[in-house]
């Protein structure tokens, strides 16, 4: 288990991190979300000991030792490989730095290349690969030594939906073998889809921390999806309705001022008859992100 | 496996397999080979430089062939055959030997060009010796008289200890050493600073530092460059030994070799000594400082600028060594021969000229090595911060921010 306890980091007068705490258990995926400059990369750099910081970061109850770094797989935000090396040379070199012998890693390369659908041969030079394929090779470098702690900074950035799915499968597979995984993302759908927990940072401070459902539910079931022959104007006159957005023919999304207004709206709209859809939900992570991450309600 | 060694081997193999490194190592040999080859092609072959000897007197002919010392051929025995061979440029020409009434010996050379002055002297010596024998016979001198006439004047050279060859050896040693160190330092400072600056411009360092400590990585890089230099030196030593063997036995250079063997021996002695350790330690120190300069650059495009401070420093020390070459006893040379960066040029200068004791050299070397170790330790400590600091803050800003990160 990775435990981050009360870490703070200042760059001159800038408070990059302020009393940040969270845990990531084995076999758990945690999403670290926040706007640009919220402190996500600084958090990763602190875990990786790139920075001096106040507070404590432990792995299985102990400060991270040199040997523990062999169990880490890290993907930085900006992708970069050694362009003059071949795919095999690059993967083997980085794996050797993780204390993995070349003869153990080499036989796995073809399998991983197939898993990520890398177009090219292991003997191809990195600079001959497309940007997307270079990104996949870097993902292989991050995961091939089967690390126990995986830190991915914006891993989905630049990936098309097909390749994003391949990455999600690899992340879930790592979780199933017991790895603790943290990744940052601006795409809340990815976080919602595969994360068990999430931490949201705003200006270096934790503003949300919990399971994905728990975080959503703490905002109340204030989103109502409704299919009805009522007009938007009619719906907006109902008590407890803050705003109405048409999202399709006879299909609306209502924002409620209070989750408790739901039953009265249900009665008013159905009048005891069948309607196709009445779904009262908490706000989506995307909505929460827009509301909470920047500290401003964008709606 | 030790991670420092992994970085060392990766750095070394990547560079050693590059064409630029191969060319760097092979260039002197290609140059020497080309010079040797052109000389060989331009120099006439053995047969073509021979002189045929023609004489009615067979014993006279044999005597000339065996004892004259001139490069001759016994292949042609008649004037016609020798003329044909000369026309075809198979031989350099032919010499016709005669004795008139068994009293006077004469020789006439026939050929397209004048005989080399050395050969003329040899022919003259042979003829004089023969003529003296004939004169003695004609004069019917007694043995005593003959011995009296045989007395020759003597000429000897009493040379002082500091001979001209000593001075030449020192000058040659100094220039070879200074230029070698200057070129090696410039080359490797540039390679190191540019490689590290180029790495810094990418995020690969974050991946690497998530696997090993910056200190281990930095040390591995420096050792990798040091291995390259050692490789270059070994290739030069082996190649040099091969060239010495060739030079000693090749007909083109054997004479020159035997003539200059004492100087060459002294030069080699001056080079393959503690001076070589000074050169290696200097390379190590400059490599460490170059890595530091490379780590202060923030953009890949600026990689070429990274090595400039080190190259200017090297240029300054080189210029100083050249300026004080003629005055190795100067107080400035003495003081600076103990200061790292300068000592690599100035202590060897003093040693070559015999103005420094071995004790002084060892002290200077200890200071130099301590500086190398100290700078490796300190730069290794701050290396991570410097490499991960990628904001554009200028030289001092980069340094300050880098120091604050770790």
Fill in the keyword field for this structure.
heterodimer, A: 299 residues, alpha/beta, Rossmann fold, four-stranded antiparallel β-sheet, 10 helices, globular, B: Rossmann fold, 17 helices, 4 strands, 70% helix
Could you characterize what this model shows?
The complex is a heterodimer of chains A (299) and B (406). Chain A has 299 residues and is of the alpha/beta class. Chain A contains ten helices and 14 strands. In chain A, β4 (54-59) and β5 (62-63) form a beta hairpin. Chain A is globular, with a radius of gyration of 23 Å. By secondary structure, chain B is mainly alpha-helical. Helices cover 70% and strands 5% of the residues of chain B. A four-stranded mixed β-sheet of chain B has the order 2-1-3-4, with helices on both faces. In chain B, a hairpin with a 3-residue loop joins β3 and β4 (104-110). The model of chain B has no long low-confidence stretch (mean pLDDT 83). Chain A: One of its GO terms (molecular function) is ATP binding. Chain A: It holds the Pfam family DrrA1-3_C. Chain A: This is ABC transporter ATP-binding protein.
Which protein chains make the most extensive interface, counting residues with beta carbons within 8 Å of the other chain's beta carbons? A-B, 32 and 22 residues
CATH fold title of the largest domain in chain A: Rossmann fold
Q: How far is it from the N-terminal to the C-terminal residue of chain B, by CA?
A: 26 Å
Order of adjacent strands in the largest pleated sheet of chain A: 6-7-8-3-9-10
Into which percent range does the helicity of residues of chain A fall?
25-40%
User: Would you list the SSEs of chain A in sequence order as H and E?
Assistant: EEEHEEEHHHEHEHEEHEHEEHEH
Q: Beta-sheet strand percentage of chain A?
A: 25-35%
Computed over alpha carbons, the radius of gyration of chain B is 32 Å
Mean pLDDT of chain A: 90
Work out the strand percent of chain B. 5-15%
CATH superfamily of the largest domain in chain A: P-loop containing nucleotide triphosphate hydrolases
CATH class of the largest domain in chain A: Alpha Beta
E-strand count of chain A: 14
């Amino acid at each position: 288990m990775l435990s981050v306890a009360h870490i703070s980091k200042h760059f001159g007068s800038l408070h990059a991190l302020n009393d940040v705490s969270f845990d990531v258990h084995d076999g758990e995926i945690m999403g670290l979300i926040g706007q640009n400059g919220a402190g996500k990369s600084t958090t990763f750099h602190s875990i990786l000991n790139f920075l001096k910081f106040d507070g404590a970061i432990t792995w299985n109850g102990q400060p991270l030792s040199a040997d523990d770094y062999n169990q880490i797989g890290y993907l930085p935000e900006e992708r970069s490989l050694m362009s003059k090396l071949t795919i095999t040379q690059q993967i083997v070199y980085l794996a050797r730095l993780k204390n993995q012998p070349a003869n153990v890693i080499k036989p796995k390369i073809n399998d991983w290349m197939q898993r990520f659908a890398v177009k090219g041969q292991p003997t191809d030079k990195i600079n001959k690969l497309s940007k997307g394929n270079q990104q996949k090779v870097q993902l292989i470098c991050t995961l091939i030594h089967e690390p126990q702690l995986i830190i991915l900074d914006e891993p989905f950035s630049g990936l098309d939906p097909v390749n994003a799915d391949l990455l999600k499968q690899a992340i879930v597979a790592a979780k199933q073998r017991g790895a603790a995984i943290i990744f940052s993302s601006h795409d809340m759908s990815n976080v919602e889809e595969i994360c068990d927990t999430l931490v949201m940072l705003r200006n270096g401070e934790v503003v949300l921390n919990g399971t994905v459902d728990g975080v959503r539910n703490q905002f109340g079931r204030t989103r109502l999806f409704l299919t009805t022959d009522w007009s938007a104007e009619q719906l907006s006159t109902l008590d407890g309705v803050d705003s109405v957005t048409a999202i399709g023919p006879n299909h609306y999304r209502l924002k409620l001022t209070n989750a408790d207004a739901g039953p009265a709206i249900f009665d008013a709209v159905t009048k005891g008859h069948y309607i196709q859809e009445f779904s009262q939900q908490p706000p989506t992570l995307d909505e929460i992100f827009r509301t909470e991450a920047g500290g401003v309600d964008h709606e | 496996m030790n991670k420092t060694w992994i970085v060392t081997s990766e750095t070394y193999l990547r560079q050693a397999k590059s064409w630029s490194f191969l060319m760097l190592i092979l260039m002197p040999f290609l140059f020497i080979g080309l010079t040797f080859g052109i000389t060989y092609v331009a120099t006439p072959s053995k047969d073509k430089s021979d002189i045929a000897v023609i004489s009615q007197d067979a014993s006279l002919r044999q005597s000339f062939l065996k004892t004259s010392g001139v490069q001759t051929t016994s292949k042609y025995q008649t004037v016609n055959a020798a003329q044909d061979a000369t026309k075809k440029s198979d031989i350099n020409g032919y010499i016709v030997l005669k004795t008139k009434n068994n009293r006077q010996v004469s020789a006439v050379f026939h050929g397209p060009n004048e005989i080399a002055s050395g050969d003329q002297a040899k022919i003259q010596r042979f003829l004089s010796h023969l003529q003296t024998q004939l004169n003695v016979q004609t004069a019917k001198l007694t043995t005593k008289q003959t011995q009296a006439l045989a007395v020759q004047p003597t000429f000897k050279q009493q040379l002082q200890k500091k001979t001209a060859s000593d001075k030449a050896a020192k000058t040659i040693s100094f220039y070879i050493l200074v230029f070698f160190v200057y070129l090696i330092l410039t080359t490797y400072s540039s390679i190191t600073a540019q490689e590290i600056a180029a790495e810094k411009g990418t995020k690969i360092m974050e991946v690497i530092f998530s696997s090993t400590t910056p200190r281990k990585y930095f040390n591995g890089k420096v050792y990798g460059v040091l291995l390259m230099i050692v490789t270059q030196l070994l290739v030069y030593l082996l190649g040099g030994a091969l060239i010495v063997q060739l030079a000693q036995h090749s007909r083109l250079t054997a004479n020159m070799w035997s003539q200059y063997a004492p100087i060459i021996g002294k030069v080699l002695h001056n080079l393959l000594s503690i001076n070589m350790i000074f050169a290696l330690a200097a390379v190590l120190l400059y490599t460490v400082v170059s890595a530091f300069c490379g780590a202060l650059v923030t953009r890949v495009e600026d990689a070429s600028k990274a090595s400039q401070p080190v190259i200017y420093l090297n240029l300054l020390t080189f210029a100083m060594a050249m300026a004080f070459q003629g005055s190795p006893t100067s107080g400035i040379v003495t003081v600076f021969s103990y200061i790292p960066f300068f000592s690599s040029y100035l202590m060897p200068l003093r040693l070559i000229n015999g103005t420094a004791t071995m004790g002084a050299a060892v002290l200077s070397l200890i200071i130099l090595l301590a500086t190398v170790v100290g700078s490796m330790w300190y730069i290794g400590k701050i290396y991570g911060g410097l490499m991960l600091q990628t904001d554009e803050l200028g030289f001092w800003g980069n340094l300050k921010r880098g120091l604050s990160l770790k």
